[in-house]
């Protein structure tokens, strides 16, 4: 793979907590000449590298993916915010699965997605089970490169206030110093660090077809 050539990317979930930060990083990167965004609602995006596609996620088509090398999937919600288990599963499983299948047909080189530290399709937790299900689906698609980021609790400023996560953030920040060895993967991590890592991973040549990164490994890519 020629990493010197200018690259193009598609960011799905580009207006979210991590996606918005990732778009900024890609636009400010010399390596990327085009940053496509699929969004559900029009907005003001003023960078010359950005191409915005306003789409209903239930009606995304193959041509919407375009000729890009890297697809970054930053879609994610919670059961509470989505309103039901079914609505949550649509955002965290069905939409990523559809986009990945279209990306595969478009011969995308690298698919990069955020799941969660507890992702396991056999988990008792519906949240973790859905995260594990999408991982399995993506692995089965057999991309040339697939990178899965499994952060622990995410910290940072979200548009919506999540009391449970804010309390967890405070507790984990206190516990982070004592989470050592194999427990380091449970350390909290900021959304900005995850976005930085996604960009770095896309530009970091790897031999493995499938690579899974936990919080401690994600943090190594970030100077933050």
CATH superfamily: NAD(P)-binding Rossmann-like Domain
The tally of domains stands at 1
Radius of gyration, CA atoms, in whole angstroms: 17 Å
Query: Strand content of the residues, in percent?
Result: 15-25%
The largest sheet is:
7 strands, parallel
Element-level helix/strand string: EHEEHEHHEHEEHEHEH
| CATH class descriptor name | Alpha Beta
Say how many strands there are: 9
Rough outline: globular
- At CATH level 3, the topology is Rossmann fold
Poorly predicted runs are none
- Give the helix/strand class: alpha/beta
**Order of strands, widest sheet:** 3-2-1-4-5-6-9
Question: What CATH architecture do you see?
Answer: 3-Layer(aba) Sandwich
Structure description:
- The chain is α/β, with parallel strands linked by helices.
- The protein has a single domain (7-219), classed as NAD(P)-binding Rossmann-like Domain (Rossmann fold, 3-Layer(aba) Sandwich).
- It is built from eight helices and nine strands.
- It has helices at residues 19-27, 62-65, 79-82, 85-105, 126-141, 163-175, 191-203, 215-219; strands at residues 7-12, 32-39, 50-54, 70-73, 110-114, 145-150, 154-155, 189-190, 210-214.
- The strands form two sheets. A seven-stranded parallel β-sheet has the order 3-2-1-4-5-6-9, sandwiched between helices. It has a two-stranded parallel ribbon with strand order 7-8.
- The longest helix has 21 residues, at 85-105.
- The mean pLDDT is 88.
